[in-house]
Amino acid sequence: MNPKVSVIIPAYNTEAYIAKAIESALKQTLTDIEVIMVDDASSDKTVEVAKSFTDQRLKVIVNQQNFGVSAARNRALRAAQGEWVAVLDSDDWYAAERLEKLVLLAEETNADMIADDLYLIKDGATSPWSTLIQESGEHIDIDKILQIDIIHFVETDVYGQAGLHLGLSKPIFKREFLVKHGIEYDETLKFGEDFWLDMKCLINGARFFLVPKPYYFYRSRPNSIVGQSILLRLNQCCIAINSFMQQEVVKKNPTLMRALSYNLAAFKKNLAYFQVVVPIKQKKWLTALTEIRKNPYFFYDFIYRFNNIIERRIEYYIKGNKSVFDMTYNLHRKRKTTN
After folding, report:
1. CB atoms near residue 205 (< 10 Å)
2. Over 60: is that where the pLDDT of 58 sits?
3. Which residues pair with 146 in a beta bridge?
4. Looking at residues 280-309, what average pLDDT do you find?
């Protein structure tokens, strides 16, 4: 008989974290599960740590070369046999009752996908500093399950602005729904993979519910943003939105088109800004000057961001807060500047 839930864990060089992730999955109060870890050609001891577990519910698959997180997730998805599929990043972990709670509520609401709130916890900390919903600034009744439609999903996940940002959430998915619609992760993307998988589900009519209680621990690790990386990521997001907007089903939904257009404008605005900032940091003055000429509003944007830039430098260089460039830290800053 197939398991109730397949937990898929993509992993790459996370030997210090993978044991906690696997352990949290295997110690769920819902025991009818399988755990599929796909190692994406790690160069450390991630595979060795994973294979030290003797629980027969754990399957370890090893890629011989690095294909990226989306490809690793897709390999796990294709191997999954569960009625539900749950994603767990290799440096995160679950509360013990997470899967039991979410599956029960999913069946009660006839959901195709259901997400919970996220605990936000800094690497090395012993307790969370906040949750995704708390940092959104939205007032949500914790005792009420919300149905999320595609418009609300897009409108509350705008780059650089406060909002729910449910693209960061980790829903569990009805595997039958994914298979029926041929839904997998986009392996061309290096950023926002979860957001676009959710979008594929929603555009295909998925019933998506949000449980405003946190059962997922989202670890924030120090990750300085490299200049070329941010340009690549923003470019990819623009391409992904443009591609999605070309679908006929999207074109026939003017409200969705407006919401996506607003998101696209936000990405383009940030892209134009960083196309000046990156060459300045690299001391490529001619390139920076050329980009400033293309973006005459750069100085207005820079002045608007100036206080946050100074605050971030103080946090990083003086207070030693190495998390100032993390996404979850920036969610907190967005809320402060929006409220």
Report:
1. 11
2. yes
3. 210
4. 83
